[in-house]
Specification:
The protein is α/β, with parallel strands linked by helices. Strands 13-12-14-15-23-22-21-18-19 form a nine-stranded mixed sheet, sandwiched between helices. A seven-stranded parallel sheet has the order 5-2-6-1-7-10-11, with helices on both faces. Helix 11 packs across helix 12, helix 12 crosses helix 19 and helix 14 packs across helix 15. The protein is globular and about 70 Å long. Bound molecules: glutamine (GLN). Glutamine binds next to strand 19.
């Protein structure tokens, strides 16, 4: 079977959950035995989101091959349990970068280089790239932004041209819109959907399916109205009502027959029913927890849910694996002081100190680590969280009050976290951190080895600074040990305090590899430790 293409566009507003609809569609096709991948096209000019502040764009998701990408790729991996790669996220910046490079190489010699056809051709090339590998039956492309945005136009035009190029049965367009409920009129309103579809049609695209995000069920009348004015059949108008969990959306889409409509349109050779047994087992555990724990997530971007998306999802996976409801308490690291830490973190069964960059909130993180260490509360430090655990231990156990990472104090007399030589030489910021998957060897016995159940692991990284192994003998002597190391460089990737019930810090980002069907062992065991803590109270 040759590759078929699905394009997912959005109308009316942003944040409707195009990523979840794309991931759910992919999940249903995968559950019917098809090989599916999803890619995201982002209309902004940054070459990748690595240089964006989380407040701008939520978390930056890192792939195995070290690409800094949009957080929707995290949803794709968590739903499909299949890795994405550098090829799965394309921005306007990347498109222009390659067109301009070709122009300088003389590829277009004699020609004026223009948005149409040169930019749109490059977008088309990228849209078809994964399909051309022969690895997939279906490639889903999510188009970021909202139809009608000036910056989305070349992407919509590229989709139009692909739709024109390909046989009808090779290409489908799903359009996601909002059907708002006006409480004064007590009515669902279809006009914004009509307008956004009209905009799509003006650009030459006819949707095959319209998915309506709504807070109330769509009546048959509403479906008929949307269908009539948008030129599709009523059964192709699909309701996507607010769900308790994003993981329910694939099942809701089965009820609405989204998969059947797509399979029919694309004439896909698929199983009669999606096999969602494992998925349903997960949901069953998620919605029927036997236990409950309170976990503090200490970070500086806590106002914005999306900034720690993968960590929050990993806690959900880890919770379900333990049949345990995880109440996540977001605690702003800037607001934690030695005077109020007991009040803020006192009732917690686990403390997770989050990744981050820069000085803001760092002292609060150190205070949180100290509290977890001294009060024997399960502790999990990720990246900067691990680095702050080392700083805290150096300050309060080794007695080096000036211990710090050189990221924050370049001249500290006690640089327990420092830049490696190759990082010191770098002058540019984009894509230059230690990025992507690296091997790590675990010591035996250790908490890490017990958790993973093996001695060789691979995890994804995104950081510049590293633990300074000059301090390792002193740290180890006082009870903080290194239990995971990079086999090539010897860099310390995991630290533990064996005398503590559960204290682990990791230089990598385990949250990037937790999926519904494969919850990450560190999160599973962290929740388990929190559960044991709750029983001791
Ligand atoms: N800022 C730290 C570094 O660059 C930690 C990064 C992170 O937490 N992702 O090493």
């Amino acid at each position: 079977m040759h590759t078929k293409y699905i394009f997912v566009t959005g109308g009316v507003t942003s944040s409707l959950g195009k990523g979840i609809i794309s991931a759910s569609t992919a999940k249903l096709l995968q559950a019917r035995g098809l090989r599916v991948t999803i890619q995201k096209f982002d209309p902004y000019i940054n070459v990748d989101p690595g240089t964006l502040n989380p407040y701008e764009h939520g978390e930056c998701y890192v792939t195995e091959d070290g690409a800094e990408t949009d957080l929707d790729l995290g949803h794709y991996e968590r739903f499909l349990n299949v890795y994405t790669s550098r090829a799965n996220n394309v921005t306007t910046g990347k498109i222009y970068e390659s067109v301009i490079k070709k122009e300088r190489e003389g590829v277009y010699l004699g020609k004026t280089v223009q948005v149409i056809p040169h930019i749109t051709d490059e977008i088309k090339r990228r849209m078809l790239l994964l399909g051309n590998t022969g690895h997939y039956d279906v490639v889903i492309s999510e188009i970021g932004g909202t139809v009608g945005d000036i910056e989305s136009l070349p992407f919509v035009e590229a989709v139009r041209q692909i739709q024109w190029d390909l046989p009808d049965e090779d290409c489908a367009v799903i359009h996601l819109t909002l059907v708002p409920f006006l409480s004064a009129a007590k009515e669902l309103k279809t006009k914004p959907t009509q307008h956004s579809v009209r905009m799509l049609q003006q650009n030459g695209l006819q949707p095959d399916v319209i998915v309506c995000r709504t807070e109330h069920h769509l009546t048959p009348d509403i479906r008929r109205k949307v269908a009539l004015f948008c030129n599709i059949k009523p059964n192709e108008v699909i309701e996507s009502i607010d769900a308790k969990s994003i993981y329910q959306v694939p099942l809701a889409m089965v009820d609405e027959k989204l998969d059947e409509i797509i399979i029919r349109k694309l004439q896909l050779n698929a199983a009669n029913e999606p096999d969602l047994r494992e998925w349903k087992q997960f949901l069953d555990k998620l919605f029927n927890p036997q236990h409950e724990v309170n976990i503090a997530l200490v970070g500086k971007y806590v106002e914005l849910q999306d900034a720690y998306k993968s960590i929050l999802e990993s806690l959900i996976h880890g919770g379900a694996a333990n049949e345990c409801k995880v109440n996540v308490h977001s605690v702003h690291s800037e607001h934690i002081t030695p005077a109020n830490v007991a009040e803020k973190l006192g009732g917690m069964n686990g403390i997770l100190v989050a990744p981050g960059f820069g000085e803001r909130g760092v002292e609060g993180k150190i205070t949180a680590v100290r509290y977890a260490r001294e009060q024997a509360i399960p502790f999990f430090g990720i990246c900067l969280g691990m680095q702050m655990a080392v700083v805290e231990f150096a300050r309060h156990v080794l007695g080096h009050p000036e211990a710090m990472t050189t990221e924050i104090n370049r001249n500290t007399p006690c640089p327990v976290i420092d830049l490696m030589e190759d990082q010191k030489r770098l002058t540019t910021k984009g894509g230059t951190m230690r990025l992507g998957a690296y091997k790590c060897m675990l010591d035996k016995p250790s908490l890490a080895c017990q958790i993973y159940g093996k001695t060789e692991i691979s995890e994804r990284h995104r950081h510049r600074y590293e633990m300074n192994s000059d301090y390792l003998p002193e740290l180890q002597q006082h009870g903080m040990i290194a239990t995971g190391r990079n086999p090539e460089t010897g860099l310390v990737e995991i630290i533990e305090i064996p005398s503590h019930p559960f204290f682990i810090g990791v230089q990598f980002h385990p949250e990037l590899k937790s999926t519904v069907e494969n919850p990450h062992p560190l999160f599973v065991h962290f929740v388990k430790a929190a559960l044991e803590h709750s029983r001791r109270q």
